[in-house]
Amino acid sequence: MSSLTGASRGDRDHNTTSSSPDDAVSNTGSGDNVDLSTSEYAVRRRELMGLINDLRNMGAGGLDIHLPSIAVIGAQSAGKSSLVEAVSGINVPRDSGTCTRCPMECTMSSEATEWSCTISLRYDYHADGTPQDRPIVTQFGSPITSRSEVDIWLRRAQTAILNQSVSHEQFYSRSYEELRAWTHPRMLKFSKNAICVLIKDPEATDLSFIDLPGLVQNEDAEVIDLVRGLVEHYVGKDQTIILTTIPMTDDLENQGSAQLAREADPDGDRTIGILTKPDMLGSGAIGQLRRWRDILEGRGENRRLRLGYYCMRFSDDAERSQNLSRSESQRRATEFFETTAPWSQVTDRRRFGVPNFVADVSKLLMKLIQDSLPYIRQQVDELIASTKEEMDLLPKPPSLDARVEVLSRINNFCESFKEAVSGTNAYKDLAQRNRAAYTIFKRSIRGTAPDFRPFERPYEYTDPINIPELREDITWPIDPRVSPMALYDVRKVVKASLAWELPGDVPFEAKAQLIKEFVALWEVHVNTCFTSVCDILQDVVEEFVDTHFSQFRRFEEHMLRHVDDGLRTCVTEAGQAVKAALSLEMSPHFTQDTLTYNTLRRVLLSHYRSQYTHSNRWPRQMAASPVFDSDTPAFVTPVAPDPDDPLVTVKDNELGVMADVRAYFQVAYKRVVDHIPLTIEHALHHALSTRLSSSLLSSVVDVSNFTELAERLVSEDPGIATRRAALQIKMRRLVEIKDRLRAIAY
């Protein structure tokens, strides 16, 4: 925390005495030449402290903006109330059984011609402890002009804070006895809401501090934890100066508030120790007096503070009963420190008495505020940016006309889905995922090609087919249902098909049988492709429904129900269309692409003849049939067969059948890997897009109570509406805070 550390850690470790807050100010160059009595300095001080009070009342603390402040902490009976009275000049409730049960923010301003005190209640939290959207600040009664009335009004204000469910005006006229006897079923023991006390006193030093409830011991564990948590909330902020009251009648190690301050400020950079009750140490307590003097002079090894300690003597009960003036109380305290050992022997006299302490800490607070202004502005700017980002992430608020909102969202959904199907908008996921599915389908169909091997013993050879006309830009897995077919296998099919053909003729039925065998393998791959595309479509449709309707839960459920109905219908109809498209390949076996077919047949026949004639040139079988692609080198260059070779003449029928069937596969395969995807696209995606455009509108328009239905459908999710409202309130608060910061110069 740079604004409070005028000296480095190394410098602090070598000092034998603590630096005062005045030193911390002057060491930075802002205090040596300043006359505290000059009007310019006084105006600036009031301006800065007024700014912080305004920001606090605007709810800056609740937005996690760290505001410079002074927090007074201590155990009960540690002299904390006496410190508050001595600094502020007012009387606070302090009789037996009475304690501070909520934070009290006390601001003293010298901008006045006569003394007055105004009490306000600031509700940062609801009665159940949840934060308010913004603080509610209410003036409690009229300004007080008599110091003697402050005590009773503070009691009334505290009772009002603890009874948030009761109108605060009911407590304006309550007496001491009525306040003590007051009970209510919903009355709190402690509250995080604050009493704000503004004291205007022409003789005051401008200062602001927060008096926190004293740490309690004789209470329920829940109350003890609540008070401790409240104190930790304030002192844990790195812009808070911690004033911890420490009665000198007990050892420093036993002080709960000192321990809590150490936890919040382990390096002691922003803690000031206030030593109280020095007059209760008798002259015989030599050891205690020596230890406290060492601590006061910065020689205490167990707890050094950069801002040091102050020692104060407050009026005892007897003196308070005399109603001594403030100046008389201070005179007696000064006389005590000047005449009582060992305090009279301490060199740094500014370490004694309330006036010295108030002057020092006022300058320290002013410097802290001044140095923190850039950081506060930065925090506000960052919070505005992050809040805007959160608001942008929320759906836009619905239209005031529910019917317009419903129709607009349905039209936008249908148009976006239509563009996604055609791939004409920024959303390419559907088209890209479908293309990937169709590529897998193509590879699967290619893997069903007949494995003809023009040998008598085919398993002794690898599949040698590798000709330019059959090369492709993909690789494919061989369908495990495809088995190699040798000359013998083809001959057997031909013989089984013979009827009254002339010698040397091959029945077309034999070729048809072989074609049906590979076409029959396609059904599984077609169904797999169709199922995959349907799953993709289901995902995309749900994503689109979520994008367009998730802001309204009922609307989303309505759309999902009708979209699912349309999707099921289209899937059924598309499935039938795909089945019909595949059945076209079963019969008849026909193509008008004669050029491709004849070219492939001629090349394949030549290739098979070459394989058969020169079988000794082909590699022996070493593994399962390989997968070939465009990078696979040819095993051998095909050799034109010798027409006079008797072996060729004998086997021409089988080789011709192989060439015919394999050539037809290539033509049919190229046809089906286009036809099936186009059928799916037309019968499923485009059909669904067309169906939804009409059915979704009909689901809301073709009803007797369209207006009522529309209002029900676009009733926004309460969580989203609540979140948006909270962010809007937060943004308004931040803008107000930023405007308030602009009104003050650096």
Automatic annotation (TrEMBL):
GO terms, molecular function: GTP binding; GTPase activity; microtubule binding
GO cellular component: membrane; microtubule; mitochondrion
Keywords: GTP-binding, Nucleotide-binding
One of the Pfam families matching this protein, by short name: Dynamin_M
GO BP terms: endocytosis; intracellular distribution of mitochondria; mitochondrial fission; peroxisome fission
Family annotation (InterPro entries): Dynamin, Dynamin_GTPase, Dynamin_N, Dynamin_stalk, G_DYNAMIN_dom, GED, GED_dom, P-loop_NTPase
Domain Dynamin-type G: 64-374
CDD domains linked: DLP_1
Span list, region Disordered: 1-38
Segments of skewed composition (Polar residues): 16-38
Keyword Nucleotide-binding applies: yes
PROSITE patterns with a match to the protein in the record: G_DYNAMIN_2, GED
Domain GED: 654-746
Record flagged with keyword Coiled coil: no
PANTHER family, per database record: DYNAMIN, DYNAMIN RELATED PROTEIN 1, ISOFORM A
Protein name: P-loop containing nucleoside triphosphate hydrolase protein
Organism, as annotated: Coniophora puteana (strain RWD-64-598)
